[in-house]
What we know:
mainly alpha, 54 residues, elongated
Amino acid sequence: MDRSQGRLLTTLADLRQQADYGYEPIDADVATLLDRTRSFVESMAALVDSEPGE
């Protein structure tokens, strides 16, 4: 996992907090976040499916 994926998780958590407790509209590029999230999930699936030591 690289730093950009870690930052994505932080961004998504922050947006969730803002959606739950904020009173201002969320100004985020949802299409980009969706693409990055799909890429992250694919990376994690590949990691789970990989053999130890790969």
